[in-house]
Input
Amino acid sequence: MSSQATALVDLVTGRTVSAVLHDDLDELRLIDGEIEWSPIRLRSLRQMIASGQATLPQHIHWNWAVKAVQNRLLAYRTLGIEAAGTMQGLMMVILTGHLARLEPDRNKPVVYVEFLETAPWNSREFTEMPTFKGVGTRLIEAAVRLSYDEGYSGRVGLHSLPQASRFYVEGCGMTNLGSDPDYHDLPYLESPASRSKR
Amino acid sequence: MSAMQEMNERFEGAAEIETQTPITVGAWRRESDEPVRLKLIEPLDSGEPKGSRPQLPVAQHSGSPPSF
Output
């Protein structure tokens, strides 16, 4: 596992804080992350139900420890951002088996983001006052960098929550190719290859 | 412009949008990863009296162990 310095913004103080991007987390780190996130998820779930909230976050049942064990033999890689001593966001990617759908690079390989989630205390779906800003941005940047490292010229693909598409289109410059009938009708988004030299 | 400059420009403003929308990626609808749903234990129009349970077959034991 290697790691590099990055930064997030503390939304309480408005200050930039140092963070660490881990680019290949092992199962134990994912289990440790879930140990931190799970009680917060459960407390939020309790609060949502107690207050009569009609809809729950669709990923409220996720468990990264289980994902880590399920995918241990597959070609997945998990990246994470750590700040203030805890994991602030996680992203599981696969480097093989997914091909670009955008022209002119159709059928060329992409880094495919299988799962991405910010810690519950950073998500407006779980809290009205998120702690850190920039977790998803740093993770998607890391996916694009990984794509360059693999020789994929920055191509990244993913299926997002319909409500999350705005972040990937407006924030990350990805193209929304519409809902995918072969993948639960979730919107498929792709980051085109860069025509610039690295 | 280098690819890294292009990337920096592309992601400028992303963090701000991130504070306003969900960012979750993944197939939470996958069969092995189904979301939590509230379920009715008994259908309202099943015709079965509430609390009734299906009769399960009862194993008949002759008292002697099975032979293989």
User: Anything to note?
Assistant: Chain A has four helices and nine strands.
